[in-house]
Design a protein that fits this description.
The structure is a single chain. The protein is an alpha/beta fold. 34% of the residues lie in helices and 26% in strands. The strands form two sheets. It has an eight-stranded mixed sheet with strand order 3-4-2-1-5-6-7-14, with helices on both faces. Strands 9-10-11-8-12-13-15 form a seven-stranded mixed sheet. Helix 1 (18-28) crosses helix 11 (290-306) and helix 7 (171-180) crosses helix 10 (248-260).
Protein backbone atom coordinates (compact mmCIF):
# COMPACT_ATOMS: atom_id res chain seq x y z
CA UNK A 1 0.00 0.00 0.00
CA UNK A 2 1.11 3.58 -0.59
CA UNK A 3 2.35 5.79 2.19
CA UNK A 4 0.96 9.29 2.73
CA UNK A 5 4.39 10.91 2.48
CA UNK A 6 6.01 8.33 0.23
CA UNK A 7 8.36 8.97 -2.63
CA UNK A 8 7.55 9.44 -6.32
CA UNK A 9 9.39 7.46 -8.99
CA UNK A 10 9.66 9.24 -12.36
CA UNK A 11 10.47 6.61 -14.99
CA UNK A 12 12.18 8.31 -17.91
CA UNK A 13 13.01 11.33 -15.77
CA UNK A 14 15.79 12.49 -18.07
CA UNK A 15 13.63 12.80 -21.21
CA UNK A 16 11.88 15.82 -22.69
CA UNK A 17 8.71 15.26 -20.65
CA UNK A 18 10.20 13.39 -17.71
CA UNK A 19 12.73 16.10 -16.86
CA UNK A 20 9.89 18.62 -16.50
CA UNK A 21 7.92 16.20 -14.33
CA UNK A 22 10.97 15.53 -12.18
CA UNK A 23 11.92 19.19 -11.77
CA UNK A 24 8.38 20.35 -10.99
CA UNK A 25 7.72 17.60 -8.44
CA UNK A 26 11.08 18.17 -6.78
CA UNK A 27 10.12 21.82 -6.19
CA UNK A 28 6.81 20.75 -4.66
CA UNK A 29 8.07 17.70 -2.78
CA UNK A 30 11.78 18.23 -1.99
CA UNK A 31 13.63 15.02 -1.29
CA UNK A 32 10.75 12.76 -2.32
CA UNK A 33 11.48 12.38 -6.05
CA UNK A 34 13.47 9.48 -7.50
CA UNK A 35 14.30 9.14 -11.19
CA UNK A 36 14.52 5.84 -13.04
CA UNK A 37 15.73 4.60 -16.38
CA UNK A 38 17.61 1.76 -17.98
CA UNK A 39 20.85 3.12 -16.55
CA UNK A 40 20.28 6.50 -14.87
CA UNK A 41 23.64 8.18 -14.53
CA UNK A 42 25.31 4.79 -14.68
CA UNK A 43 24.09 3.93 -11.19
CA UNK A 44 21.96 0.89 -10.44
CA UNK A 45 21.42 0.92 -6.70
CA UNK A 46 18.50 2.72 -5.06
CA UNK A 47 19.62 6.13 -3.89
CA UNK A 48 22.52 6.34 -6.33
CA UNK A 49 23.33 9.94 -7.37
CA UNK A 50 21.37 11.31 -10.30
CA UNK A 51 21.40 15.06 -10.61
CA UNK A 52 21.63 17.61 -7.79
CA UNK A 53 19.79 16.20 -4.80
CA UNK A 54 17.75 13.75 -6.87
CA UNK A 55 18.48 10.02 -6.43
CA UNK A 56 18.17 7.56 -9.28
CA UNK A 57 17.50 3.86 -9.70
CA UNK A 58 17.72 1.41 -12.56
CA UNK A 59 14.23 0.43 -13.76
CA UNK A 60 13.75 -0.88 -17.29
CA UNK A 61 10.09 -1.07 -18.39
CA UNK A 62 11.03 -3.85 -20.83
CA UNK A 63 12.33 -6.02 -17.96
CA UNK A 64 9.27 -7.06 -15.95
CA UNK A 65 11.10 -8.75 -13.08
CA UNK A 66 13.71 -6.04 -12.85
CA UNK A 67 10.99 -3.39 -12.72
CA UNK A 68 9.27 -5.21 -9.86
CA UNK A 69 12.53 -5.44 -7.96
CA UNK A 70 13.06 -1.71 -8.41
CA UNK A 71 9.61 -1.00 -6.94
CA UNK A 72 10.23 -3.33 -4.01
CA UNK A 73 13.57 -1.64 -3.37
CA UNK A 74 11.71 1.61 -2.68
CA UNK A 75 9.49 0.49 0.16
CA UNK A 76 7.94 3.90 0.81
CA UNK A 77 6.93 4.46 -2.81
CA UNK A 78 3.63 6.34 -3.18
CA UNK A 79 3.39 6.92 -6.94
CA UNK A 80 5.05 6.15 -10.26
CA UNK A 81 5.00 8.49 -13.25
CA UNK A 82 5.60 6.60 -16.51
CA UNK A 83 7.24 8.97 -19.01
CA UNK A 84 8.35 6.19 -21.34
CA UNK A 85 6.17 3.79 -23.28
CA UNK A 86 6.34 0.20 -21.98
CA UNK A 87 5.78 -2.72 -24.34
CA UNK A 88 2.82 -4.01 -22.33
CA UNK A 89 0.87 -3.49 -19.12
CA UNK A 90 3.53 -5.18 -16.98
CA UNK A 91 4.79 -1.99 -15.30
CA UNK A 92 1.25 -0.74 -14.66
CA UNK A 93 0.26 -4.10 -13.18
CA UNK A 94 3.36 -4.15 -10.97
CA UNK A 95 2.47 -0.71 -9.58
CA UNK A 96 -1.23 -1.24 -9.07
CA UNK A 97 -1.02 -4.70 -7.49
CA UNK A 98 1.26 -3.12 -4.87
CA UNK A 99 -1.19 -0.30 -4.24
CA UNK A 100 1.17 2.23 -5.86
CA UNK A 101 -0.56 5.08 -7.71
CA UNK A 102 0.24 5.47 -11.42
CA UNK A 103 0.32 8.49 -13.73
CA UNK A 104 0.87 7.32 -17.32
CA UNK A 105 2.00 9.71 -20.06
CA UNK A 106 1.72 6.96 -22.70
CA UNK A 107 -0.34 7.87 -25.79
CA UNK A 108 -0.67 4.46 -27.50
CA UNK A 109 -4.40 3.63 -27.82
CA UNK A 110 -4.17 -0.16 -27.52
CA UNK A 111 -1.92 0.02 -24.46
CA UNK A 112 -4.35 2.50 -22.90
CA UNK A 113 -7.23 0.13 -23.55
CA UNK A 114 -5.41 -2.75 -21.89
CA UNK A 115 -4.40 -0.59 -18.93
CA UNK A 116 -8.04 0.42 -18.47
CA UNK A 117 -8.70 -3.28 -17.98
CA UNK A 118 -6.73 -3.07 -14.71
CA UNK A 119 -9.45 -0.95 -13.11
CA UNK A 120 -10.59 -3.73 -10.77
CA UNK A 121 -7.02 -4.49 -9.69
CA UNK A 122 -6.35 -0.82 -8.91
CA UNK A 123 -9.59 -0.36 -7.01
CA UNK A 124 -9.05 -3.49 -4.91
CA UNK A 125 -5.55 -2.32 -3.97
CA UNK A 126 -6.68 1.23 -3.18
CA UNK A 127 -4.61 2.70 -6.01
CA UNK A 128 -5.37 5.32 -8.65
CA UNK A 129 -4.13 5.19 -12.24
CA UNK A 130 -4.58 8.22 -14.51
CA UNK A 131 -4.31 7.90 -18.29
CA UNK A 132 -4.42 10.49 -21.12
CA UNK A 133 -1.98 12.72 -19.27
CA UNK A 134 -0.26 15.36 -21.39
CA UNK A 135 -1.17 17.74 -24.18
CA UNK A 136 -2.70 15.34 -26.73
CA UNK A 137 -4.11 13.25 -25.19
CA UNK A 138 -4.66 15.27 -22.04
CA UNK A 139 -5.59 18.91 -22.41
CA UNK A 140 -7.37 17.97 -25.63
CA UNK A 141 -9.59 15.64 -23.59
CA UNK A 142 -10.44 18.43 -21.15
CA UNK A 143 -11.33 20.83 -23.99
CA UNK A 144 -13.45 18.13 -25.59
CA UNK A 145 -15.27 17.65 -22.28
CA UNK A 146 -16.01 21.36 -21.96
CA UNK A 147 -17.32 21.66 -25.52
CA UNK A 148 -19.36 18.49 -25.04
CA UNK A 149 -20.98 19.71 -21.81
CA UNK A 150 -21.64 23.17 -23.27
CA UNK A 151 -24.13 21.54 -25.64
CA UNK A 152 -25.62 19.27 -23.01
CA UNK A 153 -23.97 16.35 -24.78
CA UNK A 154 -22.47 16.35 -28.28
CA UNK A 155 -23.11 13.84 -31.00
CA UNK A 156 -19.88 14.75 -32.83
CA UNK A 157 -16.49 15.95 -31.63
CA UNK A 158 -13.53 17.10 -33.71
CA UNK A 159 -10.12 17.77 -32.16
CA UNK A 160 -7.39 19.64 -34.00
CA UNK A 161 -3.78 19.68 -32.82
CA UNK A 162 -1.05 21.97 -34.18
CA UNK A 163 2.44 21.09 -32.93
CA UNK A 164 5.69 23.01 -33.20
CA UNK A 165 7.90 21.14 -35.66
CA UNK A 166 10.98 22.95 -34.34
CA UNK A 167 10.67 21.44 -30.88
CA UNK A 168 13.07 18.66 -29.90
CA UNK A 169 10.72 15.81 -29.07
CA UNK A 170 11.69 12.67 -27.20
CA UNK A 171 12.48 9.48 -29.08
CA UNK A 172 9.30 7.73 -27.88
CA UNK A 173 7.14 10.60 -29.12
CA UNK A 174 8.77 10.60 -32.56
CA UNK A 175 8.53 6.81 -32.89
CA UNK A 176 4.85 6.92 -31.90
CA UNK A 177 4.15 9.65 -34.47
CA UNK A 178 5.77 7.68 -37.28
CA UNK A 179 3.96 4.48 -36.24
CA UNK A 180 0.67 6.41 -36.25
CA UNK A 181 1.28 7.44 -39.83
CA UNK A 182 0.89 3.80 -40.86
CA UNK A 183 -2.77 3.78 -39.83
CA UNK A 184 -5.23 4.47 -42.68
CA UNK A 185 -7.21 7.71 -42.21
CA UNK A 186 -10.55 5.99 -42.75
CA UNK A 187 -13.47 8.15 -43.85
CA UNK A 188 -12.21 11.36 -42.20
CA UNK A 189 -11.01 14.13 -44.49
CA UNK A 190 -8.61 17.06 -44.11
CA UNK A 191 -10.24 20.19 -42.74
CA UNK A 192 -9.43 23.91 -42.70
CA UNK A 193 -9.52 25.10 -39.10
CA UNK A 194 -8.92 28.49 -37.50
CA UNK A 195 -6.29 28.21 -34.77
CA UNK A 196 -5.47 31.21 -32.54
CA UNK A 197 -2.13 32.72 -33.49
CA UNK A 198 -1.78 30.55 -36.59
CA UNK A 199 -4.68 31.55 -38.84
CA UNK A 200 -6.58 29.01 -40.86
CA UNK A 201 -4.66 25.79 -41.30
CA UNK A 202 -5.31 22.50 -43.07
CA UNK A 203 -5.26 19.67 -40.55
CA UNK A 204 -5.22 16.05 -41.65
CA UNK A 205 -6.72 13.00 -39.94
CA UNK A 206 -4.33 11.53 -37.38
CA UNK A 207 -5.06 8.72 -34.89
CA UNK A 208 -4.53 10.46 -31.55
CA UNK A 209 -5.83 8.24 -28.76
CA UNK A 210 -8.67 10.68 -27.99
CA UNK A 211 -10.70 9.36 -30.93
CA UNK A 212 -10.58 5.90 -29.37
CA UNK A 213 -11.22 6.84 -25.72
CA UNK A 214 -13.65 9.78 -25.81
CA UNK A 215 -16.58 7.77 -27.25
CA UNK A 216 -16.44 5.71 -24.06
CA UNK A 217 -15.59 8.34 -21.47
CA UNK A 218 -17.90 11.09 -22.80
CA UNK A 219 -20.44 8.97 -24.66
CA UNK A 220 -19.92 10.79 -27.98
CA UNK A 221 -20.58 8.48 -30.93
CA UNK A 222 -18.35 10.26 -33.47
CA UNK A 223 -14.88 11.60 -32.64
CA UNK A 224 -12.26 12.70 -35.20
CA UNK A 225 -8.72 13.88 -34.44
CA UNK A 226 -6.49 15.83 -36.84
CA UNK A 227 -2.92 17.10 -36.91
CA UNK A 228 -0.91 19.86 -38.55
CA UNK A 229 2.49 21.39 -37.78
CA UNK A 230 3.38 25.05 -37.37
CA UNK A 231 5.50 24.77 -40.51
CA UNK A 232 3.34 24.22 -43.58
CA UNK A 233 6.35 22.69 -45.33
CA UNK A 234 6.85 20.20 -42.50
CA UNK A 235 3.14 19.32 -42.51
CA UNK A 236 3.24 18.60 -46.22
CA UNK A 237 6.38 16.49 -45.93
CA UNK A 238 5.10 14.53 -42.96
CA UNK A 239 1.91 13.39 -44.64
CA UNK A 240 3.57 12.96 -48.05
CA UNK A 241 5.77 10.36 -46.37
CA UNK A 242 2.79 8.43 -45.06
CA UNK A 243 3.12 5.61 -47.64
CA UNK A 244 6.82 5.21 -46.78
CA UNK A 245 6.02 4.80 -43.08
CA UNK A 246 4.29 1.50 -43.84
CA UNK A 247 7.64 -0.14 -44.65
CA UNK A 248 9.76 -1.03 -41.58
CA UNK A 249 13.14 0.04 -43.02
CA UNK A 250 11.76 3.33 -44.33
CA UNK A 251 9.91 3.85 -41.05
CA UNK A 252 13.18 3.60 -39.14
CA UNK A 253 14.85 6.02 -41.53
CA UNK A 254 11.95 8.47 -41.21
CA UNK A 255 12.13 8.29 -37.42
CA UNK A 256 15.85 9.01 -37.49
CA UNK A 257 15.32 11.93 -39.85
CA UNK A 258 12.61 13.50 -37.71
CA UNK A 259 14.77 13.22 -34.60
CA UNK A 260 17.45 15.29 -36.36
CA UNK A 261 15.25 17.76 -38.30
CA UNK A 262 13.76 20.79 -36.56
CA UNK A 263 11.94 23.15 -38.95
CA UNK A 264 9.62 25.65 -37.30
CA UNK A 265 9.14 26.77 -33.72
CA UNK A 266 7.83 25.38 -30.44
CA UNK A 267 4.33 26.91 -30.38
CA UNK A 268 1.30 24.65 -30.20
CA UNK A 269 -2.45 25.08 -30.46
CA UNK A 270 -5.30 22.67 -29.79
CA UNK A 271 -8.96 23.16 -30.59
CA UNK A 272 -12.13 21.23 -29.76
CA UNK A 273 -15.33 21.50 -31.79
CA UNK A 274 -18.61 19.91 -30.73
CA UNK A 275 -21.91 19.63 -32.59
CA UNK A 276 -25.40 18.62 -31.59
CA UNK A 277 -28.69 19.21 -33.44
CA UNK A 278 -27.34 22.12 -35.48
CA UNK A 279 -25.63 23.73 -32.49
CA UNK A 280 -21.88 24.20 -32.37
CA UNK A 281 -19.45 24.90 -29.51
CA UNK A 282 -15.71 25.45 -29.85
CA UNK A 283 -12.75 26.49 -27.74
CA UNK A 284 -9.00 26.45 -28.09
CA UNK A 285 -5.81 26.52 -26.08
CA UNK A 286 -2.35 27.77 -27.05
CA UNK A 287 1.13 27.74 -25.56
CA UNK A 288 4.78 26.96 -26.18
CA UNK A 289 6.67 23.72 -25.66
CA UNK A 290 4.52 20.64 -26.07
CA UNK A 291 6.90 18.48 -24.03
CA UNK A 292 7.13 21.06 -21.26
CA UNK A 293 3.37 21.44 -20.97
CA UNK A 294 2.83 17.67 -21.10
CA UNK A 295 5.27 17.38 -18.20
CA UNK A 296 3.42 20.07 -16.25
CA UNK A 297 0.10 18.28 -16.78
CA UNK A 298 1.66 15.06 -15.47
CA UNK A 299 3.14 16.87 -12.46
CA UNK A 300 -0.17 18.52 -11.53
CA UNK A 301 -1.93 15.17 -11.90
CA UNK A 302 0.63 13.49 -9.65
CA UNK A 303 0.14 16.17 -7.00
CA UNK A 304 -3.61 15.49 -6.98
CA UNK A 305 -2.96 11.75 -6.71
CA UNK A 306 -0.64 12.25 -3.74
CA UNK A 307 -3.18 14.51 -2.04
CA UNK A 308 -5.74 11.69 -2.16
CA UNK A 309 -8.25 13.78 -4.09
CA UNK A 310 -8.83 11.25 -6.88
CA UNK A 311 -10.94 8.07 -6.81
CA UNK A 312 -9.32 4.65 -6.90
CA UNK A 313 -9.35 2.69 -10.14
CA UNK A 314 -8.20 3.57 -13.66
CA UNK A 315 -9.45 6.87 -15.09
CA UNK A 316 -8.74 9.12 -18.05
CA UNK A 317 -8.03 12.79 -17.34
CA UNK A 318 -11.45 14.02 -18.50
CA UNK A 319 -13.15 11.69 -15.99
CA UNK A 320 -11.65 13.50 -13.00
CA UNK A 321 -13.48 16.70 -11.91
CA UNK A 322 -10.60 17.59 -9.57
CA UNK A 323 -8.42 18.16 -12.65
CA UNK A 324 -10.98 19.95 -14.83
CA UNK A 325 -9.37 23.34 -14.17
CA UNK A 326 -5.91 22.33 -15.42
CA UNK A 327 -6.00 24.82 -18.34
CA UNK A 328 -6.48 27.66 -15.86
CA UNK A 329 -3.80 26.31 -13.52
CA UNK A 330 -1.31 26.39 -16.39
CA UNK A 331 -1.90 30.08 -17.18
CA UNK A 332 1.25 31.15 -15.25
CA UNK A 333 3.20 28.77 -17.52
CA UNK A 334 2.08 30.56 -20.68
CA UNK A 335 -0.93 28.40 -21.55
CA UNK A 336 -3.81 30.53 -22.86
CA UNK A 337 -7.39 29.30 -22.91
CA UNK A 338 -9.42 30.95 -25.66
CA UNK A 339 -13.08 31.46 -24.66
CA UNK A 340 -15.77 28.96 -25.47
CA UNK A 341 -17.88 29.92 -28.46
CA UNK A 342 -21.39 28.58 -28.96
CA UNK A 343 -23.44 29.21 -32.08
CA UNK A 344 -26.49 27.88 -33.88
CA UNK A 345 -25.34 26.60 -37.24
CA UNK A 346 -25.90 23.91 -39.78
CA UNK A 347 -23.84 20.78 -39.26
CA UNK A 348 -20.65 21.28 -41.20
Amino acid sequence: MTTANGRVLVVGGRGAVGSVVRGTLERWFPGRVVTAGRSPGGHGAPGAPHGPGVPGVRADVTDAEGFRRALDGLGDLAAVVLCVQPPDTGPATACLERGIHLVDVNAEPDLMRRTTGLDGLADAAGATAVLSVGLAPGLTNLLAGRAHHALGGADRLELTVLLGSGERHGADAVRWTVEALTEPPGDARPRRVALPGHGRRTARPFPFSDQHTLPGTLGVPEVTTRLCLDSRLSTGLLFALRPAARHPALRRALTSMLLRTHLGGDAFAVRADAWRDGRHAALALTGRGQGRVSGLVAAHTTREVLAGRLPTGVRHLEQLPALADLPERLAPDGVVLHPLRSTVSRRS
